[in-house]
Amino acid sequence: MTEKFIQNVLIASGLINILAVLTFSKLFTNPVIPETDPVVMSNFGLVMIMVWGLAYIAVSKNYKNVNWVLIVFAIEKLCYVIAWGLWFREHDLLSVYQKDIFAGIFYSIYGLNDFLFMIFFGLVFFKINKTTTPQICQTD
To answer: Which end of the chain is more exposed for a tag (fewer CB within 10 A), N or C?
Structure first.
């Protein structure tokens, strides 16, 4: 993975978070997404997904200097993957599609999207930490 590729994927991950929320929530006018999962995907939760997207974009140019943030991103994505898996255990996706196709598509793909970016963030974290020496304690 080149530095430019990593930067571009960080930007893309942020834009996906932001644009997916805006699109599938129909600019926060779609009640089906928050009604379907009022804990994780409330309107506040959707705004927070967009904030995470801004964070991915914010570190895109200096991700090497904040490498531990990448593992935080991976853990955050893991939380959404787990939430998605638990949601599927207790809900019927077909009924969501019957209420709203945008919400159905959203619930079909968000966990897979988060899984892929979780892997990416983890790989970048380990790539950076493999090539740098950790500074645990500095002496003057």
So the answer is: C
Q: Where does the chain show beta strands of DSSP type E?
A: none
pTM of the model: 0.86
CB contact set of 63 (below 8 Å; sequence gap of 6+): 6, 7, 10, 69, 70, 124, 128
User: What's the gap between Cα 22 and its chain centre?
Assistant: 14
Can you tell me the distance from the alpha carbon of 108 to that of 140, in angstroms, rounded to the nearest whole number?
54
CA Rg value for the chain: 17
Please tell me the predicted confidence (pLDDT) of residue 129.
Answer: 87
What distances in angstroms separate CA 5 from CA 9, 71, 84, 119, one per listed residue?
Answer: 6, 18, 28, 15
